[in-house]
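Q: Sequence in, structure out?
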Amino acid sequence: MTGSPQQLEVLRQYAIGLLGTRQAIERAGLDDFADLMIALAENDLDLPKPADTPKRRANVELARALLQPRLRHHAG
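A: Exactly. Output:
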């Protein structure tokens, strides 16, 4: 493993979806997305799950609103 214990904690939080990409890069003291992916690999951490952010929740709700009427129409 590489990095400080604080950086490793940030990477773990990112890998399980508690932090967004930009937050993780900044909090881990990295330069960019490539560095973030390298740090995950060096620490044997999985690629991230989507972060539970207000924007993501809004996108999920929008997708549901658009798709559910269509799914009901095709099911009946």
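The chain has one domain: 5-75.
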